[in-house]
């Protein structure tokens, strides 16, 4: 119903920048919010940033001031600009799309893109 494809991950030095992209397709008209999550080995998946249908945003404390989430409606794409990267940002980053329904919610996930911050 909803397909998400992430891109833009890679290896970067501490203090460097990366821009992640998430292209959405399928039944996306009723998606209420999209976000980026990350998961490092041995740790739980955690929310990094979110953007709602009306354009409001939210960030985890650990990335505030360094990461920016944005969207390009014409291309059905969400971006995550990551600046001043730290080794602790190393993780697999996953794009999420959420549809709120009467009795709950539907969540859709991409396959993930690896971000490694190391010198």
How many H/I helical runs? 0
Alpha-carbon distance between the termini?
A: 40 Å
Oligomer: single chain
Mean of pLDDT = 96
Shape: globular
Proportion of helical residues:
under 10%
Please outline the major beta sheet: 7 strands, mixed
Helix/strand class: mainly beta
Q: Which range does the strand content fall in?
A: over 45%
Which blocks of ≥5 consecutive residues have pLDDT under 50? Answer: none
What attributes does this structure have?
11 strands, globular, 119 residues, 4-stranded antiparallel β-sheet, 0% helix, mainly beta
Overview of the molecule:
By secondary structure, the chain is an all-beta fold. It has strands at 2-7, 10-12, 18-26, 33-39, 46-52, 57-59, 67-72, 77-82, 91-101, 104-109, 113-117. It is globular, with a radius of gyration of 14 Å. The termini are far apart.
Quick synopsis:
The chain is mainly β and 119 residues long. It has no helices and eleven strands.
Secondary structure elements and pairings:
Layout: E1 2-7, E2 10-12, E3 18-26, E4 33-39, E5 46-52, E6 57-59, E7 67-72, E8 77-82, E9 91-101, E10 104-109, E11 113-117
Parallel strand pairs: 2-11
Antiparallel strand pairs: 1-3, 3-8, 4-5, 4-9, 5-6, 7-8, 9-10, 9-11
């Amino acid at each position: 119903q909803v397909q998400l494809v992430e891109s833009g991950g890679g290896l970067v030095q501490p203090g460097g920048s990366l821009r992640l992209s998430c292209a959405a397709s399928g039944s996306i008209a009723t998606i209420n919010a999209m976000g980026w999550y990350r998961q490092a080995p041995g740790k739980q998946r955690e929310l990094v940033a979110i953007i709602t249908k009306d354009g409001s945003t939210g960030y985890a404390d650990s990335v505030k001031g360094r990461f920016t989430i944005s969207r390009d409606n014409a291309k059905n794409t969400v971006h995550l600009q990551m600046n001043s990267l730290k080794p602790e940002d190393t993780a697999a980053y996953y794009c999420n799309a959420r549809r709120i329904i009467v009795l709950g919610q539907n969540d859709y996930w991409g396959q993930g893109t690896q971000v490694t911050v190391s010198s």
